[in-house]
Design brief:
The protein is of the alpha+beta class. It has 3 helices and 7 strands. The strands form 2 sheets. It has a 5-stranded mixed β-sheet, covered by helices on one side. Strands 1-2 form a two-stranded antiparallel sheet. The structure holds zinc ion (2 copies).
């Protein structure tokens, strides 16, 4: 058992480690965009008969390091462990990590990418999904109006009901109309949103990262940190 002071210090170390991972993920996204006509990677895309996630698109830009997709506080949903959500007690699927292959989508992550207002025609998210299967709301950097006020990555995922077994790598609006203002991860009940002493880490499009009370992240008719548009709703 840790003494309270030691336990507090450990918590702070984990939070800083996670914050650093967020910064590297944002950097990796910029590198990906430089090589791909200024475009963001899809949050999720079909590759033939299967689907894959943002993590496979960024993998080489994070130096093939699966640990950057995880938060040290989260022990169960860990990308680096290579455990499929579809078969968590089965054999490790380490070989699919970071690859645009079948079952990569089934690996959970400690850190999620942002596709909050995901329905086409709403506040455009940084990580969209390509047509024709999905919304066709892919984003480019020239659409980002306020990089220091656009969240790209955050702690955890939004699958609060456990309804989307594959989707353990995505922050989205689960409650109410996906495009409406008022997204509040704390009110929504996202466990990841209260991971670091009731707060959570976020990586912003300008390369910064910071710890937030997720309930205070703006999502209103004047300002929304979850949208490429500065005034989206
Ligand atoms: Zn974290
Ligand atoms: Zn919003």
């Amino acid at each position: 058992m840790l003494l309270p002071a030691l336990s507090k210090a450990k918590g702070k170390t984990q939070q800083i480690y996670c914050l650093n991972s967020m910064r590297q993920l944002v950097q990796a996204t910029h590198m990906y965009s430089n090589d791909n006509q200024d475009g963001f990677p899809p949050i999720q895309a079909a590759m033939g008969s299967y689907e894959t996630t943002w993590r496979s698109y960024l993998y080489r830009y994070v130096g093939d390091n699966p640990n950057l997709y995880d938060c040290p506080v989260e022990k169960k949903e860990v990308y680096a462990l290579g455990k499929l959500t579809t078969n968590p007690t089965g054999p490790a699927a380490l070989q699919v990590r970071g690859k645009p292959v079948e079952f990569e989508i089934d690996l959970p992550s400690g850190i999620g990418a942002v596709n909050v207002h995901w329905i086409r025609g709403g506040a455009p998210p940084p990580f969209g999904r390509p047509a024709p299967i999905y919304e066709g709301n892919m984003c480019r950097w020239n659409a980002v109006e306020a990089p220091s006020k656009l969240v790209l990555f955050g702690d955890g995922n939004s699958d609060i009901y456990g309804a989307w077994q594959h989707d353990r790598w995505w922050i989205w609006k689960e409650v109410g109309d996906a495009n409406s203002a008022g997204f509040n991860r704390v009110a929504q009940g996202d466990r990841g949103a209260v991971r670091h002493s009731r707060r959570s880490n976020y990586g912003f499009a300008d390369g910064s990262a910071s710890l937030w009370n997720a309930a205070l992240i703006p999502c209103n008719t004047v300002q929304c940190f979850w949208s490429a548009k500065a005034d989206p709703h």
